[in-house]
Amino acid sequence: MKRSPLVVLTLLALFASPAVVQAARNCGTCAKSIKGRYITSGNKAYCSQTCFVTTLDECDHCGIKLKSRYITSEKKKFCSNACLESILPQCEICEKPLIRRHTIKGHVFCDLHAKSPRCTACQLPFLRGGELPDLRYVCETCNEIVIYNMEEAMKLFRLARQELYQITARKSRQIPKLKIVGRDRLNKLTNLRVDQQDGMQLNGFYHRTETTRTSRNGFGKTTTAKKVEKTIYILYALSPDTFLTTAVHEFTHDMIAEFFPHLDGLPLWAEEGICQYVAVLLCRKRNFSEQLESIQTSPDRIYGDGYRYFEKKLGPNNWSGLLQWMKRTDPKKLPAAAPK
After folding, report:
1. CATH numbers and ranges of domains, the chain
2. Could you tell me which residues come within 8 angstroms of residue 123 by beta carbon, excluding any fewer than 6 positions away?
3. Which residues pair with residue 125 across a beta bridge?
4. CA-based diameter of the chain, in Å?
């Protein structure tokens, strides 16, 4: 709060010295010659209250002259709390005008609702929604579009395989199985494989097993058969865009295993970085802005740093450069952590 200039300046006029009075000649507003009492402000004199008021600041909302106490906020001035609150952003849940606010993905919330559970799909606090069996939450809006059933999941799964082929011109003959699972199952699958100390939230996992069986036929000839089992696990209740991005990421793991077997043993940051780089190619192609930003700004030392290594080394949209890197790289010569 500040005391208005009017109050202070009026007191100055009442106690002005004769020298000040004598020095004043013309009104700073109307330029008329001043006779008798007057008001001074900022080394200027004003012949009347009316002339002086014209120099006062205005409320940044209603435009009224600020003749008395006023409120300041973010370098703006307001004549009342009502005017201040009329221009403040409101919490998207309770609609409370906010001086102090939290911005989450471009949306504004009060202290209370910023700490509320967040939807697993849009990552925003919500008023109406529900809890999933794996203890995640989904808001009422996202619940209408997220992927729950296998039929919808398979459509996107097949589309992801086709998208990867369009980006890389590579498609494995054997399609991995798809399983949609909850967070609890996915955490068990990845527990020994991923360092999640930076809060990385995984949406999928690629699992591959290879077994070799040797047998001898009736003529004494030895035969060897190789069996490969591949499964891609993806969280249910993802938005279609996130599901598709995740599926392309996991299909890239399969592509690496099928077409670049010499890369077996890649440091985790390198393999995940490759998959994230290809996922970004999809995001740019389809204008998936939220998924793109999530990958690019991830603080995770494996996924985030891995992607940024390839983006810095190859630049954006450079599949051919990534392809050459994959062909020429010896995994044993790579560091354990992604270079900064």
Report:
1. 5-84 (2.10.110), 102-143 (no CATH), 150-333 (no CATH)
2. 104, 105
3. 118
4. 130
For the chain, how big is the Rg over CA atoms in Å? 34
Determine which of 16-30, 70-84, 145-159 has the lowest per-residue pLDDT on average: 16-30
Asked if residues 147 and 181 have their Cβ atoms less than 8 Å apart, the reply is: no
| Pairing state between β 44-46 and 71-73 | unpaired
Name the burial class of residue 199, with classes exposed (0-12), middle (13-18) and buried (19+) by CB atoms within 10 angstroms of its CB. exposed
CA separation for the pair 203, 183 (Å, rounded) = 8
Q: What element of type H or E holds 154?
A: helix 150-168
Selection from 98-107, 196-205, 302-311 with the highest mean pLDDT? 302-311
For every residue of 297-332, DSSP letters joined together read T---TTHHHHHHHHHHHH-SS-HHHHHHHHHH--GG
Global pTM value: 0.73
Exposed, middle or buried by CB within 10 Å (0-12, 13-18, 19+), for 242? buried
pLDDT in tens, 33-90: 888 888 887 788 888 888 888 878 888 778 788 877 777 777 888 887 777 777 778 8
